[in-house]
């Protein structure tokens, strides 16, 4: 039976995040001929409708308003609730991002529905939507089916491939005004101060060069940043490196840091503690560079290089420069 699917699009700095397109691909899979609607919030929302149409939305609901330019739980919650009541979907998808993780449990609780969070795959099997999600810090995967009622899920970035942009597709665009009383907003974002430098967003990066305590200092991250620049990737870190003060905690990957699934993860001077593996072991290709041949990181690595990262990383950078020139 066809389903009406609603995608809560994720916007950062006025631009759609790739996970929104991944959610649309998942939505098309499960809609089975039904309607796929995307909702986008904020004063620049109207300008974002076109790419959503190109990536599979049949309809885009635009909720304008400057108070929706920066995420706040209260404002987004009210806007999304109104959209859900208007669209009356069978399925709702959003990214398992900072925004998705914050707003979705609140919406689910208020709508009195369940929430399947952090899904790495979604399939339609015998008319049922089947979700795959990691358990035990990524050591095992479980498949889940919601037996009845509205289905609500957050999808982990970089796991479900987005469909190619089809510029011949376009979506019907509808504007919906949501009254959000100023006194209902308990927080007001006045300024956003970035902790990390400009560059590729770690949680959506296709390539991550990660450093551990083995980088030995803040300067030790420089060769990693150079390699990341050449590969168009982002720099990440273990908690060991963050605790040692070599980098900001915003870079931490792992159980208590970010969970990432890039195409390529290069771990440099990282021992491979279970808490670190929880955040990166689902990466598609893992390369480990470590002086210790017994380091646990080699148990999850597809390619292992036993050596000093300060010798190996610059060599890789030079070789990639030649290949990609
Ligand atoms: P180390 O374990 O000290 O490893 C450094 C590695 O670098 C060694 O293997 C060494 O052989 C290698 N090395 C040294 N010099 C060089 C060189 N020149 N070239 C190549 N290799 C070199 N950790 C996380 O990463 N993320 C988390 O989210 C996280 N959450 C945690 C939550 C809890 C509740 C707890 C208890 C721990 C958590 N940890 C987390 C910490 C985790 O247990 C480890 O302590 C941490 O991951 C170790 O970091 P590391 O691998 O950089 O350092």
Give a structural overview.
With 325 residues, the protein is of the alpha/beta class. It has eight helices and 17 strands. Helix 3 packs across helix 4 and helix 5 runs parallel beside helix 8. The mean pLDDT is 94.
Number of strands: 17
Q: What is the strand content?
A: 15-25%
Order of secondary-structure elements: EEEHEHEHEHEEEEEEEHEHEHEEH
Helix % is 25-40%
Q: What is the SS-derived class?
A: alpha/beta
Short précis:
With 325 residues, this protein is α/β, with parallel strands linked by helices.
Show the helix and strand layout:
Blueprint: E1 5-8, E2 11-12, E3 15-16, H1 18-31, E4 36-41, H2 49-54, E5 59-63, H3 73-87, E6 91-95, H4 98-111, E7 116-119, E8 121-125, E9 128-135, E10 140-145, E11 151-155, E12 172-175, E13 207-211, H5 222-231, E14 234-237, H6 239-243, E15 264-268, H7 274-280, E16 285-290, E17 303-306, H8 309-324
Parallel strand pairs: 1-4, 1-6, 4-5, 5-12, 6-11, 7-11, 13-14, 13-15, 15-16, 16-17
Antiparallel strand pairs: 2-3, 8-9, 9-10
What labels describe this entry?
globular, single chain, 7-stranded parallel sheet, alpha/beta, binds flavin-adenine dinucleotide
